[in-house]
Write a structure and sequence with these properties.
The protein is α/β, with parallel strands linked by helices. The protein has one domain (about 5-270): TIM Barrel (Alpha-Beta Barrel). Helix content is about 45%, strand content about 15%. Strands 1-2-3-4-5-6-7-8 form an eight-stranded parallel beta barrel, surrounded by five helices. β4, α6 and β5 (about 140-145) form a beta-alpha-beta unit. α5 (about 100-110) runs parallel beside α6 and α10 (about 215-225) packs parallel to α12. It is globular. The structure holds the ligand O=c1ccn([C@@H]2O[C@H](COP(=O)(O)O)[C@@H](O)[C@H]2O)c(=O)[nH]1. The site of the ligand O=c1ccn([C@@H]2O[C@H](COP(=O)(O)O)[C@@H](O)[C@H]2O)c(=O)[nH]1 has 18 residues, from β8. Ligand LLZGTKA7 binds near residues 186, 209 and 234.
Length: about 270
């Protein structure tokens, strides 16, 4: 899916919601554990309940890897089940020396056919480039993350006065265009988003941190939106585990719809109808 198509989906659904598929066997409703593949069954029902409010799904790969071969199988089945007009993100945070990165890219883009993958930028250009060589695919580089530890390294200032995350944003723009590169920018420190948008005016941002982490959707949107929206705002636990019982799909749907409604108003008020 290219940038224009992504924007068209955002306009069509009046939503820039990404539902995070962080499917945890300890948290899904008990009755699903009797299914042959409880993880896929949970995801299938969540996708059915939310896809009209979501423009992206983001399985966090850790939740599947942790289950061994069965987890990879559930992931593949989930990916195949996601409707073709919905953007897919492998939240894998990969990145290694070039030849290894090439194989990670092959795994997620050729074998598994995700639209995009999250990549850690800290091994530098040669670790990111192999992902960018896949035509039609997206790299989502970690820039300013939503966790408390983001300040440990990302806020360190170099001699030129730039913080590390600013350096990531500026340098990486020489490696790929806004048609293939997005950035992870956490919603938990909305005060930073305006400055980040100034450094990367045209790129999409994947924004985790609303919902369970308490980030601010309104401030994120007001400071972070560009003329093509430029935001995919993720919520995982708040939607997936809105109920741990048999009504989990109804509650997940209501939660996703509530976020979509807020996004609908924000899109209208920031971008116009
Ligand atoms: O900076 C980051 C980068 C990635 N994540 C991931 O997003 C989701 C958030 O889940 P919630 O349940 O909505 O808090 C999860 O997969 C994280 O690993 C992030 O939170 N922050």
């Amino acid at each position: 899916m290219n940038r224009q198509q992504l924007f068209e989906q955002i306009r069509k659904k009046s939503s820039y919601l990404c539902v995070g598929l962080d499917t945890d066997l300890k948290k899904i409703p008990r009755h699903l554990l009797a299914e042959k593949d409880p993880v896929f069954e949970f995801n299938r029902q969540i996708i059915d309940a939310t896809h009209d409010f979501a423009v992206a799904y983001k399985p966090n790969i850790a939740f599947y890897e942790a289950l061994g071969p069965k987890g990879w199988e559930s992931l593949q089945k989930t990916l195949e089940y996601i409707p073709a007009d919905v953007f897919t993100i492998a939240d894998a945070k990969r990145g290694d020396i070039g030849n290894t990165s090439s194989l990670y890219a092959q795994a997620f883009f050729s074998q598994m056919r995700f639209d995009s993958i999250t990549v850690a930028p800290y091994m530098g250009e040669d670790s990111v480039k192999p992902f960018l060589e896949f035509a039609g695919k997206w790299v989502i580089l970690l820039a300013h993350t939503s966790n408390a530890g983001a300040s440990d390294f990302q806020l360190i200032e170099s001699a030129n006065g730039r913080k590390l995350y600013e350096e990531v944003l500026l340098r990486s723009q020489q490696w790929g265009s806004p048609d293939q590169l997005m950035y992870v920018v956490g919603a938990t420190q909305a005060d930073k988003i305006q400055g980040i948008r100034a450094l990367a005016p045209d790129h999409f941002f994947l924004v985790p941190g609303i919902g369970a982490q308490g980030g601010d959707l309104e401030a994120t949107s007001r400071y972070g939106m560009n003329k093509q929206c430029g935001l995919l705002v993720n919520s995982s636990r708040a939607i997936l585990y809105a109920s741990g019982d048999k009504d989990f799909t109804t509650r997940a749907r209501a939660e996703a719809q509530q976020v979509q409604q807020a996004m609908h108003h924000l899109l209208d008020s920031i971008l116009g109808k």
